[in-house]
Amino acid sequence: MKLRKNTGPAVSRRSALAGAAEFCGRLLAAAWRACFARDMRSRLPDFAGIFLRAGAQAVPVTMLVGFLLGFIIAYMSAAMLNKFGAEIYVADLIGLSLVKELGTIVAAIVLAARSASAFAAEIGTMVVNDEISAMRTMGIDPVGYLALPRIAAGALALPLLSLFADLAGLAGGYLTLSLFGYSAKVFLANAFEFCAAGDLVTSLAKGLVFGAAISAAGCRCGLETGRGADAVGKSTTAAVVTSLVLFIAMDGMFALLLSASGA
Amino acid sequence: MGEEREIALETVGLDAGYGAAAVQRDVNLSIARGEIFVLLGGSGCGKSTVMRTMVGLQPPLRGCVKLFGETFAEAGTEPDETPPLLRRIGVMFQNGALFGSKTLLENCAVPFQTLPARPRAEIDEICMDKLRAVGLAAFAGHYPSQISGGMQKRAAIARALVLDPDILFLDEPSAGLDPVTSAELDDLILEIRDRRRMTVVMVSHELASIFAVADRAAFFDRETHSTLDVGAPAALRDSSPHPAVRAFFGRRSAKRKDDT
Lengths: 263, 260
Description:
The complex is a heterodimer of chains A (about 260) and B (about 260). Chain A is mainly α and about 260 residues long.
């Protein structure tokens, strides 16, 4: 099978893995150059706009999903634990699972579905319209110009979205326990009983990495867009699938690493 | 032009295409400074691919492209530092390829991003000059979606001219335009060439446009993947030894014969 894609000057036939490695290399080089760029301030409006779309505008849907997830998990668990008079442990379960895992996962799914797809569609349309080719003839590296601000915005947005998912999930959990007559004070005291500050820091760090990876997958799929009417659609689908698989695989690796380190 | 003509662009044994498949083989062209040269041929013959190879977007499968005696490989193509060779070319793509999220003025300012810093007012003044030259100064604050297709092409030419390039590449500038707008664009191309003795390399299969502006043209053949003939458009039409070339130019002539 030919994997030839038109991604710019002097690109030859290469495997998908080599393509991903090349993209990462170009990304790191662009990030390094950005550190010493003379006029980063002029790029701030672009970054702010992307951050607004990927982060701030995603808060409602993230909170809705987080709230429903917290409510459903708490309700299902409480129904079982109630038989043993242990429904209060639902607060511990919700607090621990949200802060350690679920808040980040909810936010990552939302970022992949909303933003990775949008990045792929935006950049893919630019490829189809020859805007990327135009950039290259002007000596502008599309990875640095388009992908880097999107990846930075995604990396910053995901930890913040995961905090909102945590809060909404806790609210959902509390709603369930309030049906069993527990007060907010008791719920919160139990919810954070087994949570350490380190868990939150780890969760935020994971969010940073996942946010960068998900956004990078979206941007790369966009830059790899081919020609033809269906090319942008294919890139968008590939962006969502790749970013979901990527962050779940990374989450698995994080779990193994943290387990091995005793965290 | 004779012996002393300065060569702006030269292709030597160039094979252009995608992957291993060459759409044009052994392209040998020599384009002089100040010349308007048209790459022509039927749809799918590879003229746009040859142009993309000339501007460095496609690597040559074989042979090389020399701009002012230098290849892109020799000149270097480090991203985010516009190589001197790229500064000497301006490219207008078929649909304009303007950035939809930027106004015409901002579009024109994009090529300055990789150049040494200049005051914003100076950049805006240069961009306004170019927009004025293409008759779009009044639309500087408009987005591409707010102007017509012909205006988008003129704006794309303004952006391509913003760094005062030595060679201007135009991919089908007249495609999809009405005859009047197309003729206006031809006049603009001639004016640009005459003002700065700029070399213009243009992809086109619009006969009226070719006869209006071209000094010489190369005819690419889809069947043989080769350059069938190079010469002045009238000479190609009247005395090319290749039936495919005469047939390309002869569509209208054949009709006239039928009419008489």
